[in-house]
């Protein structure tokens, strides 16, 4: 199994990039992980929101295989503790050979056709975070989950 994170737009803050890269580097000891960055849409500000979500959906779907398990990082999703997230990942790793694909959508969320394909919605908080910050939070939580599964002290260090 491989875990992928699909993102709309690049991370522009070099400090965040450094931290994200640190956790991505740590993850290679635990699991196959890949970030897929989809370029932001051109002229998005002049585009109706629904059209923007549809175009982003087409780009996201072009990066997902029919056999992938799709998880959306969505404010309306289920919140898990770090241990709960590690248990979710463990179950997926032990019961499926499919790739597990997490998606951070664009600024307006996801089009209906993305929700229809999703197997699970995951929320990190009832608060709203920037799309730049959630990338860091995700890779840190993924790393934390891997250390929990291996019984390593990071979670309580």
What is the helix content? 40-55%
Number of strands: 5
Q: What is the count of helical runs? A: 5
Domain count: 1
Q: Provide the spatial order of strands within the biggest beta sheet.
A: 2-1-4-3-5
> What shape does the CA trace take?
globular
Task: Give the integer mean of the pLDDT values.
Answer: 92
Molecular structure report:
With 157 residues, the chain is of the alpha/beta class. It has one domain (2-156): 3-Layer(aba) Sandwich (Alpha/beta knot), CATH 3.40.1280. It is built from five helices and five strands, in the order βαβαβαβαβα. It has a five-stranded parallel sheet with strand order 2-1-4-3-5. The longest helix has 19 residues, at 131-149. The mean pLDDT is 92.
In short:
This protein has 157 residues and is of the alpha/beta class.
Element layout with pairings:
Blueprint: E1 2-8, H1 14-27, E2 32-38, H2 49-61, E3 69-79, H3 82-95, E4 100-104, H4 112-117, E5 120-123, H5 131-149
Parallel strand pairs: 1-2, 1-4, 3-4, 3-5
Helix pairs in contact: 1-5, 3-5
Short key terms for the protein model shown above:
5-stranded parallel sheet, alpha/beta, globular, Alpha/beta knot, 22% strand, 157 residues, 5 helices
